[in-house]
Amino acid sequence: MDKQKAAQKLMDIFGDMNFIGVFHSILVESSKYIIIFLFAIYTWHCFTVFIGKDKDRKEKVYKKQKRIMYIIHFICSLVLFLNSLDMKILVFYLLQLAFLIFVGKAYPYVYEGMSKIVLNNMLMLLMIGFIMIERLSLTNVTRQMMFAAGISLVGLFIPYLIEKFKYFDRFGWFYAVIGILLLALVFVIGKEMYGARNWIKIGGFALQPSEFVKIIFVFFAAALLAKSTEFHDVVKVTIVAAIHVLILVAEKDLGAALIFFITYLVILYVATQNIIYFGAGLGAGMAAAVIAYHLFTHVQNRVIAWRDPWSTIAKQGYQVAQSLFAIGTGGWFGMGLGEGMPNKIPVAESDFIFSALCEELGAFFGICLILVEISCFIMFINISLKMTRRFYKLTALGLSVEYVFQVFLTIGGVTKFIPSTGVTLPLVSYGGSSVISTIILFSIIQGMYVLDEKEESS
Fold first, then answer.
1. Which residues are CB-contacts of 407 (< 8 A; sequence separation ≥ 6)?
2. Can you give 332-361 as a three-state secondary structure string?
3. In whole angstroms, what is the distance from residue 129 CA to residue 234 CA?
């Protein structure tokens, strides 16, 4: 019905129904190939930009990536507008374009010497998220834009804070106390959503404390393990880290618990270089997973859905089955933006947004998206390796692991590679807590790198 109304409006404007129908079909069909081609070029540059030492060539590549991002954004917005003829789409396009240009100009000025490929990737992922969320819900994209714009402005002050307060590594136990209190707060004023009691509702907004605590958690582990790796100190830090994880398990937020657990294991191993600690941690994690399976019904349901979603498609397997249907229906090149049925996928705008993207823009687009996420992780690790201060190095490493492991959990869950854990795809999925914490994560790594470069050169 909506498409018929849109076509009628176009007919009133142009006077020829056949011409409009043909034009719209050609545009939608051709646009998906153009978008995939452009995104593939962008992705290619993510991995080839560092070949050679020609700085002028690199700058040209960064500018080319921005132009590609703007073109993809324009094409997607045009298709969405022609699908609905809703003037809000044009307003959103202009607001999003202003946001992308502002952040693209302001961040290199504030973060002098920052990684421009990481900035471009951050903006590209945000743009893709805006487009897909807009396709699914105009209300949600309004909120997502507000969250992204607000935290991006705050992000401009992060280098200043890091430079003025150079003793973040002295407050390890303070970070631990704050993190535990914030996580435990949901037991007092929390609300249960999607089977987990890990949300706090404030007015019309719902926040996940675990999204912010995961950054504080890395500061806690990095600060204390950078100071000492003696056995008794490692035991104390590990006990407190385990308390974080156990609280998340009690909240049934097993996705976040996994992220915290794996992140701590990696930080611990890099800080101590002790493979026994790493092996013991993995063993404890496997035992905990078995116990969680027997204790929590929703864990059992997700494992059942992972094993065989088709036999339980009416119950436990519905989400995963719909996700696989969407990805399979889209094929390699997708059905075209606005031509699929992503609303049939449960929570398509958040946990299963990757499935919605693959349905309408294709598996090739999804593969490029994964590669861009991997590019971010590689650059994070590269930044971490270049840092000289041990605390900065471990912090950047921990944040990098949190980021890439969350990507793995999200995409692995929607493709049935692993059981679904209910976590969002960073910067792409709808969610205020997620987008705020991820932009902060990007900004902290960039800010620490910039400060470390200044200290090294002075």
1. 370, 373, 377, 425, 426
2. CCCCCCCCCCHHHCCCCCCCCHHHHHHHHH
3. 40
- The DSSP result for 3-26, as a single string, is HHHHHHHHHHHHS-HHHHHHHHHH
Residue pLDDT tens, the chain, 458 long: 455 666 566 555 555 555 556 666 777 778 889 999 999 999 999 999 888 778 888 999 999 999 999 999 999 999 999 888 889 999 999 999 999 999 999 999 988 888 899 999 999 999 999 999 999 999 999 999 999 999 999 999 998 888 777 788 899 999 999 999 999 888 877 676 666 666 777 666 778 888 999 999 999 999 999 999 999 999 999 999 999 999 998 888 888 999 999 999 999 999 999 999 999 999 998 888 888 888 778 778 888 888 888 888 878 788 888 999 999 998 899 998 888 888 888 888 888 999 999 999 999 999 999 999 999 999 999 999 988 889 999 999 999 999 999 999 999 999 998 888 888 999 999 988 899 999 999 999 998 888 877 776 66
